[in-house]
């Protein structure tokens, strides 16, 4: 038998039907659902008299629209947002799927809740009507975002019509330097490959620096695989994975745990398996990163200067000029001279406990800069509770941060957490697109530690100077 | 789904690279629970000022492109969010075909579910089509899906590739779910076997 990649193995284990031309019905083990991309799909089922084929494998949670202020029990003010969340309440009940409503302590960002509750397990196929489904690849699960028509397709058939992607290996060798995190790895990779570099591929991240990451860090890396254009990111499961999963509410127990573990231990890329593309970075070479433009590929080490549009080629010359104008920056300006108005810490990229610990480490006993708006939005109610228990929230509040309830918040600004026109934000989220965090808002993507450093100094800052 | 027939129409040029789905349809319009009515907000922040007035030099506001049927776009069109509201907005505006050197994966798939044909071509051919599109409304292009050919207003013919299954579904206007339901037996068989081999799932 020819050697297989991890992706090949998971794919092969989920083929329910394959046509002669390779068009495959891929069986889906977990379907995660949120309020923004599902209403039309449930409506489609109703109109055609179809049902949810596997409600026990379908898990819903509202996250994009929910307010994160402490008074959210009084309800959602924006009528359209409220209707969307109410529609998910109704659909979850009517179709009998698992549901974590807004007031449940387990509510949070769908990609944080899935792993936290043990829904996401190695070797699974996981989909959600959300591009950051790539996050779950950290467990060695084949996980990717889908559109609403595909959400309806999965609800009705528990399968997805797919063609297999190509295999790409991203290896991060050696160790990371102090102050460098999983976020910097994933941003540095996109800086190397570009936002379309992964198009048509499933990426497997490997190498010593990846193996050394916690599950939280691995989720951060895989989360942004989509920003590199890849269908999915994967990391082979190992003891770190098993330790994270073991004991979670929906993880297997007893004899089933042992059986699952036996299979999970076969989930790795065989020696000699073929990769269509290979990218290698040295862990030691990765610096804390920051974006200067309006695409996640516009990334540089914090020590760099804003690039000149003429330094690019092709269509990127105009795109870079447009980005500089949008961002209000000049070529040649030092990144560390860029002043920040707002700091946002949270999102499915960086809203987990480890991210909050990294922030606390930087800001403990210090104060954020006068006039700075700084908010920390935990990824789930349980992350919030854990941060409270560890005393992190006291550190945040003493430093001057707002300590919010769980949700997507300012990552995409569908709820009231938004940037004003020209307001500049150091953000731990995943997209710096025009208007992403608010109309004409300006986003610089950074790691949690870097966001914390910016909150203290009021400008983009090399966190290595503060630790 | 409406059948994709031979399309003849005006192509609008959008050479900007990395046009993301937040640009195509900003999140403020994702709060609808319907699939229709998004066309008026297609490219909203590029197309309108804050007061709702039109930004004159945006391509779809120019008289010759107000009823464009085709979009010729820069690299990596449709990157970012999985929101199907992006192709819904494009289709609702009246655009049935987008041509670029590359598309983001999820957006590309979403197009086919909504009667939109995304076509990938090499840069040199995109350059030809972009120049043709820049000629305005007198330069009508033809996209023939059956023959897999684009004919420019000058009569140049450019062939393109398309997945055979996706082509079939577009030409016939087929509903994916209906097609998959016909294979329910395969799914039943798979599910029964998987519940034995991976009972924890």
Ends distance of chain A: 51 Å
Which overall shape of chain A is indicated by the principal axes computed on the Cα atoms? globular
Average of pLDDT of chain B:
96
Number of strands of chain A: 19
* Oligomeric description of these chains: heterodimer
The portion of residues forming beta strands of chain B comes to 15-25%
Query: How many H/I helical runs of chain B?
Result: 8
Q: Mind telling me the C-alpha Rg of chain A?
A: 21 Å
Numbering strands along the chain, what is their spatial order in the largest sheet of chain A?
5-4-3-6-7
Q: How many alpha or pi helices of chain A? A: 16
Q: What percentage of amino acids of chain A are in beta strands?
A: 15-25%
Fraction of residues in H or I helices of chain B: 25-40%
Give the arrangement of secondary structure elements:
The complex is a heterodimer of chains A (467) and B (201).
Chain A: H1 6-12, E1 15-18, E2 24-27, E3 30-33, H2 39-48, E4 58-60, H3 79-95, E5 98-99, H4 110-116, E6 125-128, E7 142-145, H5 148-157, E8 159-162, E9 166-173, H6 182-193, E10 201-206, H7 208-211, H8 215-223, E11 232-234, H9 239-245, H10 254-264, E12 277-282, E13 289-291, E14 299-301, H11 316-327, E15 342-345, H12 347-350, H13 353-363, E16 373-376, H14 381-389, H15 392-399, E17 402-403, E18 424-427, E19 442-445, H16 448-457
Parallel strand pairs in A: 3-4, 3-6, 4-5, 6-7, 9-10, 9-12, 10-11, 15-16, 15-18, 16-17, 18-19
Antiparallel strand pairs in A: 1-2, 2-8, 13-14
Helix pairs in contact in A: 2-5, 6-8, 13-15, 13-16
Chain B: E1 7-14, H1 21-24, H2 44-47, E2 70-73, H3 85-93, E3 97-100, H4 105-112, E4 117-120, H5 123-133, E5 140-144, E6 149-151, E7 157-159, H6 164-172, H7 176-181, H8 184-197
Parallel strand pairs in B: 1-2, 2-3, 3-4
Antiparallel strand pairs in B: 1-5, 5-6, 6-7
């Amino acid at each position: 038998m020819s050697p297989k990649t991890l992706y090949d193995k998971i794919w092969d284990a989920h083929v329910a039907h394959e046509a002669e031309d390779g068009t495959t019905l891929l069986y889906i083990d977990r379907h995660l659902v949120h309020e923004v991309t599902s209403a039309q799909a449930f409506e489609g089922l109703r109109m055609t008299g179809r049902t949810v084929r596997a409600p026990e494998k379908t898990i819903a949670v509202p996250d994009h629209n929910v307010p994160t202020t402490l008074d959210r029990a009084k309800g959602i003010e924006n009528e359209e947002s409220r209707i969307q969340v109410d529609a998910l309440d109704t659909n979850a009940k009517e179709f009998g799927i698992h549901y974590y409503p807004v007031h449940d302590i387990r509510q949070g960002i769908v990609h944080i809740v899935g792993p936290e509750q043990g829904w996401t397990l190695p070797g699974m196929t996981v989909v959600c009507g959300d591009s950051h489904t790539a996050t779950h690849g950290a467990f060695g699960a084949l996980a990717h975002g889908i559109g609403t028509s595909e959400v309806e397709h999965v609800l009705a058939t528990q399968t997805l019509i797919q063609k297999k992607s190509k295999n790409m290996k991203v290896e991060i060798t050696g160790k990371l330097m102090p102050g460098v995190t999983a976020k910097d790895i994933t941003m540095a990779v996109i800086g190397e490959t570009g936002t379309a570099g992964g198009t048509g591929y499933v990426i497997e991240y490997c190498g010593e620096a990846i193996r050394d990451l916690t599950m939280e860090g691995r989720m951060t890396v895989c989360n942004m695989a989509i920003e590199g254009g890849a269908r999915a990111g994967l990391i082979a499961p190992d003891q770190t994975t098993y330790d994270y999963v073991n004991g979670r509410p929906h993880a297997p127990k007893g004899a089933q745990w042992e059986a699952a573990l036996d299979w999970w231990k076969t989930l790795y890329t065989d020696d000699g398996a073929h990769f269509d593309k290979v990218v290698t970075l040295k862990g030691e070479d990765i610096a804390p990163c920051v974006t200067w433009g309006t695409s996640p590929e516009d990334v540089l080490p914090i020590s760099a200067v804003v690039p000149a549009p003429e330094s690019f080629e092709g269509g990127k010359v105009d795109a870079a000029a447009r980005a500089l104008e949008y961002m209000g920056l000049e070529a040649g300006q030092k990144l560390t001279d860029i002043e920040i108005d707002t700091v946002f810490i949270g999102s499915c990229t960086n809203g987990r406990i480890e991210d909050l610990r990294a922030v606390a480490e930087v800001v403990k006993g210090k104060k954020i800069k006068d006039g700075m708006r700084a908010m920390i939005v935990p990824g789930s109610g349980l992350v919030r509770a854990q941060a409270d228990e560890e005393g992190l929230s006291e550190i945040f509040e003493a430093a001057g941060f707002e300590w919010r309830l769980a949700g997507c918040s300012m990552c995409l600004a569908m709820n009231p957490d938004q940037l004003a026109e020209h307001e500049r934000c150091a953000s731990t989220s995943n997209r710096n697109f025009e208007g992403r965090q608010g109309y004409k808002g300006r986003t610089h993507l950074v790691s949690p530690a870097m966001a914390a450093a910016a909150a203290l100094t009021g400008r983009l800052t090399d966190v290595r100077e503060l630790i | 789904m409406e059948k994709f027939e031979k399309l003849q129409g005006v192509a609008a040029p959008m050479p900007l690279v990395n046009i993301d789905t937040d640009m195509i349809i900003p999140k403020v319009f994702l709060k609808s629970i319907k699939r229709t009515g998004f066309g008026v907000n297609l490219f909203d922040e590029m197309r309108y000022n804050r007061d709702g007035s039109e930004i004159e030099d945006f391509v779809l506001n120019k008289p010759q492109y107000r009823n464009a049927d085709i979009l010729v776009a820069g690299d990596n069109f449709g990157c970012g969010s999985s929101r199907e509201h992006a192709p819904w907005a494009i289709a609702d505006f009246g655009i049935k075909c987008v041509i670029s050197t590359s598309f983001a994966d999820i957006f590309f798939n979403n197009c086919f579910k909504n009667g939109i044909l995304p076509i990938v071509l090499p840069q040199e051919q995109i350059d030809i089509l972009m120049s043709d599109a820049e000629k305005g409304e007198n330069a009508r292009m033809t996209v023939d899906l059956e023959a897999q050919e684009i004919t420019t207003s000058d009569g140049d013919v450019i062939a393109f590739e398309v997945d055979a299954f996706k082509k079939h579904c577009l030409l016939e206007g087929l509903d994916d779910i209906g097609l998959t339901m016909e294979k329910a037996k395969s799914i039943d068989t798979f599910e029964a076997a998987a519940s034995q081999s991976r009972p924890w799932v």
